[in-house]
């Protein structure tokens, strides 16, 4: 009982602190410039590791409050404004970004221009995110870390199982996806207050259809606004992929640290028959991705 009271007390202090921090951020939102980049995906594709490697660069300004000053469990890369929080104000969004003063100070320390950005991997496949970003951040640079779509699909399902949010076997969950999601995509497009758990957390195949997702983004942004990183290349040679990002963002290459992989989970390989079944479901979209981007990644 005493322990429970103490736990509740700690949570109360933490929540009060978060409220105070957010209130300060909103009060100073006028002096918090828009982000220079968004890391838009993909979920279970390596985006968390990539983001936390990216912010080791001295020319990348951190979100407010700085994730490196928070407990690991509280550190975040994403604001999720353009997917799940678009009903909130732009001041609320700006409250998470570094101030102009902080950026100026970091510019002097780094000896070069500073950029800032956030990573919300649901942006890639949320049906309204691309249009919203284009409306509010027309000149933003967009990055996506894309993983073998079959492995991403399976990893996404495994994450839900670990969290106790998925009871169906893998192929059954894939088969049930469309009935679970229903017409939620249309409701998400029309109503910023509407949230769909099945669309965000159980659309295993849909979030692996990179071609369909990027086609929607390309309707609002030129191809030159995007840097697409293959997850497998990033994991094999982090420095090379991070330097590509540095050049894309206009900061000096070769100044990254490299941390531990984030959100990594024990692997359980797919059997060949299951992989072939999922490949068949994603093959048309893989072709679409190649046609859209010219990339010849040999996943499917």
UniProtKB/TrEMBL annotation:
Keywords: Glycoprotein, Transferase. Pfam families: Sulfotransfer_1. Gene3D superfamilies: P-loop containing nucleotide triphosphate hydrolases. It comes from the Bacteria. Residues 35-252 form the Sulfotransferase domain. The keyword Acetylation does not apply. Residues 252-273 are annotated as: Disordered. GO terms for molecular function: sulfotransferase activity. This is Sulfotransferase domain-containing protein.
């Amino acid at each position: 009982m005493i322990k429970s009271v103490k736990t509740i007390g700690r949570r109360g202090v933490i929540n009060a602190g978060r409220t105070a921090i957010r209130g300060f951020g909103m009060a100073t939102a006028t002096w918090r410039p828009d982000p220079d980049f968004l890391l838009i995906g993909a979920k279970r594709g390596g985006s968390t590791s990539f983001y936390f490697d990216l912010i080791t660069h001295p020319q990348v300004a951190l979100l407010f409050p700085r994730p490196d000053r928070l407990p690991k469990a509280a550190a975040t890369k994403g604001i999720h404004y353009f997917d799940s929080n678009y009903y909130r104000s732009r001041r609320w969004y700006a409250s998470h970004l570094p101030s102009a003063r902080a950026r100026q100070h970091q510019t002097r320390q780094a000896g070069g221009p500073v950029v800032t950005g956030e990573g919300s991997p649901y942006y890639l496949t949320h049906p309204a995110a691309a249009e919203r970003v284009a409306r509010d951040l027309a000149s933003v640079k967009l990055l996506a870390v894309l993983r073998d779509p079959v492995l991403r699909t399976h990893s996404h399902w495994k994450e839900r199982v670990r969290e106790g949010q998925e009871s169906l076997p893998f192929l059954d969950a894939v088969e049930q996806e469309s009935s679970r999601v229903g017409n939620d995509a249309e409701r998400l497009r029309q109503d910023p207050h509407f949230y769909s758990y099945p669309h965000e957390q159980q659309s295993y195949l849909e979030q692996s259809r990179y071609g369909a997702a990027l086609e929607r983004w390309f309707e609002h942004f030129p191809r030159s606004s995007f840097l697409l990183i293959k997850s497998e290349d990033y994991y094999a040679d982090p420095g090379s992929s991070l330097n590509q990002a540095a050049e894309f963002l206009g900061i000096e290459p070769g100044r990254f640290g490299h941390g531990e992989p984030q959100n990594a989970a024990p692997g359980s390989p797919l059997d060949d028959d299951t992989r072939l079944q999922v490949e068949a479901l994603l093959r048309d979209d893989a072709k679409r991705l190649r046609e859209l981007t010219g990339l010849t990644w040999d996943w499917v």
